[in-house]
């Protein structure tokens, strides 16, 4: 089985590498293993091992990791813009949704104008329309 490749910005990759280095440094006076620390080390290591760093997807308007998406929530008319990427790896000021989240799964592969639906934990169905999808590098400086 091949691990899923995860899209990261260069900044997020650098931050995760620094966090991993700090976590791997022996803590003063630490004698008992810290389970939370060990889990975070494993999580970061997995992210870095499977990372695709800063390689933009094609500018073809299709929703996929590494794209900044604008969606309209059809029931309310509200819009939201977010990066489809890896949660837990900061990407600056833009909101990040994982491709594995309900919204991320629903819009993955969508083209502008395409409506998708997903269920929220309450069981309700939310309908969204993809309005725009552009590579992260084209919007990060805005």
Automatic annotation (TrEMBL):
Organism domain of life: Bacteria
InterPro entries noted in UniProt: GreA/GreB_C_sf, Tscrpt_elong_fac_GreA/B_C
Ranges where the Transcription elongation factor GreA/GreB C-terminal domain occurs: 62-131
Keyword Protein biosynthesis: yes
Protein biosynthesis in keyword set: yes
One term of GO molecular function: translation elongation factor activity
Pfam families per the UniProt record, alphabetical: GreA_GreB
GO BP annotations listed: regulation of DNA-templated transcription elongation
UniProtKB keywords: Elongation factor, Protein biosynthesis
Designated name of the protein: Elongation factor GreAB
Organism of origin: Lentzea aerocolonigenes
